[in-house]
Structures
1.
Amino acid sequence: MPIMTDAPFLSSPADYAAAVATAVQAATAYYTDGGTPLGDDEYDALLRALATYEEAHPDEVLPDSPSGKVAGGAVQGDVPHSVPMLSLDNVFSAEELESWAAGLERRLGHPVAAWCVEPKLDGLAVAARYRAGRLQQLITRGDGLAGEDITHAADAVLGLPAVLTEPIDVELRGEVLLTSAQFEHANQVRTAHGATPFANPRNGAAGTLRAKDRPYRIELTFFGYGAHGLPGLDHAALLLRLADLGVGTAATTAAHPLRCTTLVEVQQRVEEIAVLRSELPFGIDGVVIKADSSADQQEAGSGSRAPRWAVARKLAAEHKVTRLLDVEWNVGRTGIIAPRAVLEPVVIDGVTVTYATLHNPADITRRDLMIGDRVFVRRAGDVIPRVEAPLVDERTGAEQPIAFPEVCPRCGDAIDREEQRWRCVRGRNCQLVASISYAVGRDQLDIEGLGGTRAVQLVEAGLVTDLADLWTLTREQFLGLERMGETSTDNLLAAIEAARTRPLNRVFCALGVRGTGRTMSRRIATHFGSMAAIRAADADTLAQVDGIGTEKARVIVAELAELAPLLDRLAARGVGTAVTAPQAPASSAVAPDQEDAAAGPLAGAAVVVTGTMTGPLAELTRNEMNELIERAGGKASSSVSKRATLLVAGEKAGSKRAKAEELGIPVSTPEEFAALVADYLA
Ligand code: IVH
């Protein structure tokens, strides 16, 4: 994954001096409070440009240039390090990594015995001194030679025990960070105390480590990656030893360190960690490749800034800084009024981002955002980009407050502000056309020919005021609509009639209850067996369904109460009343009963589907695939985790396949899978 940002070209001493000034300013912000006016990619590109210029003009090198200095020379401390805390050299592509490795082997005069590949954790380097197994002192990296004493913060750092499992003298080296959960929690606690939220986890970790006498506690996490005082151990063995001592390491995570004997394996592992990145519960900004053998490490030695036996393969930044241009308010299918940030376009990890989610109005207030702000935007993998925080220090005074809507931006009716997410008081009826179109979609009631334009016609003609009206429509009413001939009318009437007996999961899904997509609708239908039983359930009963927490259960109960008149009308028309067990999707055939499913070929299996299906499964939508899995006794899930037992990988399967292979989960082709569940297919 190459870095997208090209290094700026410095053509004159004045350009060079200006670039040094910018880099010093950015390094100072980055290494002291974790904030930065430049994105990581831009900073790296600037340093590369400085290095290129300095190589060509060695006489002009300015003394405060950050290149070649630990922490860009930005920080100093007063506790001397026993052994300097070095930085790492960077490479930015597979080719650069290959030539770095070749250079190291040339220097050694023999091949490297083995490599160790591990995540480059995006936090702050610390040294933790233990005497007789007891934690004595915690120190920041500072300028690499001396750091700041932050022992006061030690007891809030998970993975850094007060007492090791053995009474030894050792100095641990590693990274302190906020995991995603710790970051979210930290910001909740901070806003509850009237403090501004942290812009990002790195900034939060830096602020938390330094802070003293805060009225609240924020937990951090330590991952060890080195030690002084445990000589002779190879790197992978050292990490195991640290874990035995009770110290946190990345070994417990999906991106665990891996010993590789060939460079091909190293490159593969780098790619795997890059793919896993977006799903890791903590930030990484690269992958570190180390010579594993302690003999190789000693032979290679270190320069003044970095060891020669290790290198960081940087990954493109997931964070970027850009400008918030506007906030749009969109009304969703269920009447939710959701804010969306309009951004100055910015490329993050190869994708141009122009919009980002802002969640809800309370979130905007909490993050203290203004139009015109420079903001941190994060995009991780497939996750929707989100605005994390404004760079408050960069405000010019020209920023404008964000205007919140007074009335529903779609229909002009009032807004219900009871919950954090605002809603039009008309709820679904504010978006009747969208609600009907969703309900008749292929994965719900599957009524072909009733797409967007027909739904608009029916609503505008006043023939449909809610979903249940579909089953009251007459032939004459359809024929009265524009561009509606006899054949299409008859086809449509037949499709509407066929939809009356769709299985419970599909009818339930068609209601568009918040938080219940296709998967959840299937689980609810299987659990309760009838619409009457679902309607009779209270929040506690609903919370028994896998994946429904107490909050979601409460929302579902409230929405079902709101939908009661519609549900009564649907029931009166025989829609969603007959079904008591999972059935075949409309486009396939047999419907084995629930006992069959319990004994089916997938009993106890957790199956994930990815890529384009082929062969007998080519026509099935993802929802129909999931229904098939459940009919055959399995559980369909959308993400590959340790719990998954099989991945069905079709054409163009991407990261899920890599992850399944990484976790040792069996992978089958669509054809193999079709053979396995043949009895449950049409
Ligand atoms: S090894 C002498 N391993 O990255 C060994 N560093 O950009 C030097 N870092 O200063 C460090 N994850 O703060 C090492 N797995 C890892 C790391 C790691 C993050 C940090 C560390 C270092 C910085 C260099």
Note: The longest strand covers residues 319-331.
2.
Amino acid sequence: MPFTIIPEPALIRKRDDFLEFFEYTGLPVIEGDFQKEASVLKEQFAPRAEPPHSPAFSGTDAARKIVCKKDEALKVEAYALAIGREAIELRAGCGRGAYHGLQTLRQLFLSGEKIPCAHIEDEPRFGWRGFMLDASRYFYTVPFIKKLIDALSLHHINVFHWHLTDDQGWRLPVPEYPLLTDIGSKRVERRLSGAPSIGGFYTEDDIREIVSYASARHIEVVPEIDFPGHASAILAAYPGLGCTGGPYRVEDRFGIFDDVLCAGNDAIFGLADAVFNTLARLFPSPYVHIGGDEVRVTRWSRCPKCNKRLADTGLKNMPELQSWITVKLVSMLAEKGKTAIGWDEVLEDSPRYMLPKEVVIMSWRGADGGKAAVKRGHPVIMSPNTEGCYLDYRNCDDVEEPGQWSVSTVYQSYSMNPVAGMSESEAALVMGGQCNVWSEIIYAGRIAEYMIFPRIVAFAENMWTFRKDFANFAQKLTVHRQRLDMLDLVQYRGRLK
Ligand code: ACM
Ligand code: ZN
């Protein structure tokens, strides 16, 4: 009898007997502490007319129970389960651990198999187990994002990084800058005859709903606003913030563009201030991601204002102006009580405007940025595009597979080692890892699901467990796939390596 839990718990001691769980209808009674987390589990199993369906509990209404107990001795995300013949006891130090424990049970309930009596102790290896969705290149709906967040939480993923702005669309309402959404959230698809305008933005209510839905599932929502590059949507709305004054457009092409925010124009910080105030109001996370990737200096080089800024700051070359901007943004965020995260390009700073040590580096161009960052004392999140973290890449090397740029296998998502080649003190700065979906050609939630599952399942086990074993994972996946089916998630079913 398999005992299929993903991610693999730290310790499982199985007994020979079974919880006679599926002999009754309805949900188990959940008693004791952590009633907030219990109510989410009940919601997850509420019968529905539409998919996702709940497991077919059957039989009599015997009073089998889950008893939840607070146990201060357990670490924040840790939990312990004692599965007996008559009842289950769940212990956790706080709601986060309790939620993880309940999701482990949810997996077992979804399988509809007999559950062995057992003692389980569990806690994560890494604290940052993230997933990023690009909602700019494709504007995903609120129901899809909620469905995704719920599914991520089944696997103990605990960060949803929400990429809210890019060249192809601005998705965040900022009261002081209404044109960001009035103009910047829509683009004209010029390749299509009739040129329809597509896009949209999340309202404050949408954002609150997603943050609160995620928070009930113990997932932190980290917003990303890209400065000073990937700014076409900003410039289309406020052309005065660019070096040339335009004309600009919300891009319907994909790539890296020359037009970025003008480093010589103080007004870009007025915009940043308003954006950060909005983020501080809507997102409780201590982190704000400021992007910083793929910034071209073509326009800065020929811009009188940018050249004046270069002279005023005493910097030697145009790329150094990005670090001047980044340092300013970082301190603006710090004043609002937020810590900045940046893509690894922000490490390419100047000695004059050194990046403050508290800035978190998200390493995406392979692992080198992360390795360099820990040497300089920065906290790091590993998300190397070379090692299984880019889920918009094809699942295998087959022309019929959807996806862009490259290939990234389930096995790679399982194998990425965020602390490879690091000393103990360097490794201590690694917060964990993250998978990303860039959505240039992932133009539907259903396609996103296919790209995300099961690679994120492999990644979740990779980031969580102390007991990695790919052969065991691959075997468990055959059972776990049925759970993903029950949750109505499209999944890739081809080879894993
Ligand atoms: C990135 O993939 N440009 C962060
Ligand atoms: Zn300029």
Note: The pocket of acetamide (ligand 1) is lined by residues 293-294, 343, 364 (CB under 6 Å).
3.
Amino acid sequence: MWNIVVGLETHVQLKTDSKIFSPASTEFGTNPNSQVDFIDAGLPGVLPVLNRDVVAFAIKFGLAVNAKISPVSIFARKNYFYPDLPKGYQISQFEQPIVIGGNIEVRLQGQKKINVSLVRAHLEEDAGKSIHEGVDSLPKGKSGIDLNRAGMPLLEIVTEPCMNSAQEAVAYAKTLHRLVTWIQICDGNMQEGSFRVDANVSVKRNPSDDLGTRCEIKNLNSFKFLERAIIVESERQIDLLENGQKVIQQTRLFDPQSDETRAMRSKEDANDYRYFPDPDLPKLVVDNS
Ligand code: ADP
Ligand code: MG
């Protein structure tokens, strides 16, 4: 009998008028690159300025889940290369995130309840988007970069690996979705990407065994996909192990058409990102006044 273990990382887009470090608008669906400040484009010599509303929303979330609000938190640079990331790093929080711990009570079907423990919730900026079709100004066969999403404010909410089925994970995600829309920090629009879930999945034979090797399935933007992704990924891992093979730690994508997960890249760990405190941003100090 196999046990499934799931931990979720959810990117909640915060409902502010302007971006996290620039005055550009956050409106959805406008023409590509029409809402890009110099800061979002990563031009040399410009400096990010933290949006106060983003901090207020993160604190509101922390209070809603009985978490600790860090009196001092730090923005860090997460370095990687990708065409939609002009600066070559994403500003995120690594050590000392703004929200630490917390928990969310989740009702399952019937009377049953589970308590989902949160590790942390940290602030970060979103990256831009590569576009391959659907834009008139884009020549056929070419790709373009749209930086409207670059610098959108995100709160990434991370759970402990404490859920044990696709049903529990979906129930948690729905509860979290209801919470962040109810406290009005997120518009909750999943088609527009305002609420995106990454599912970390592993399996083990006995509940008391150590955690198995996990795979992370990225960017699940519907509850149905979240459920299917966890089910097919756990089945894939069980098959491997029952056939004497090993699970390789990987980042994977769920393909709804074929109803399977596919390898995207081998899993990087924190060292690969060369995190360090962003010298352009002071420490974020939150006091009680
Ligand atoms: P990273 O930041 O590299 O993705 P973390 O250790 O911060 O890694 O964990 C990210 C998420 O993965 C958390 O939600 C955590 O609960 C979950 N997780 C970690 N290990 C496992 C595991 N063995 N099985 C399932 N989920 C896991
Ligand atoms: Mg992760």
Note: The chain has a mean pLDDT of 96.
